[in-house]
Design goal:
Layout lengths: L1 H8 L8 H25 L4 H17 L8 H25 L18 H15 L3 H12 L4 H8 L3 H24 L1
Helix pairs in contact: 2-3, 2-4, 3-4, 5-8, 6-7, 6-8, 7-8
Amino acid sequence: MEAVDRECELGGDSRPSRLSDELISLLYKDFREPLFNKVLYLTGHDQQWTEDVVQETLIRAWQHSDTLNREPGMLRGWLLTVAKRIVIDGWRNRRARPQEVELDSSENAETADQTEQSLSALVISEALRYLDGKYQAVIYETYLTGHTVREAAVILGIPEGTVKSRLYAAMRTLRRSLGELGSR
């Protein structure tokens, strides 16, 4: 009933009042540094975790501002107890969960799965075996070694137009062969 009466007095707003905001400002001003130092020790000098714990402690003080004893010694004790419990919960959670590892070095990074590439290369190699030698040579010079049509023509000793037509015919035959191999 008391919570309902208090809610009605606040006009249905369940947030702590302006007085509690002033209390938090005072708590922050008076207790932030000693609280931070104590929590820093408890967290093993983890600066970010310490800041999170201090912030969470002050949020809980703000949420319980209507029930807090305003005496400085009692406030300090309450804040330190809450912070200590938050740190203990954090240590328990870290122990229950596997430690996270940063992937800075390439030795820890996962290597890409090469299975698909290997399988594709195997299938294409099988299909290339069924091509005539002149078509295999054109595909080898253009696709596998990366030469241009002009360079392949010079290497093979044939005109550029012949390289293009053989390449077209070879690719058409390969597509047909790969379609048959894929349906097997």
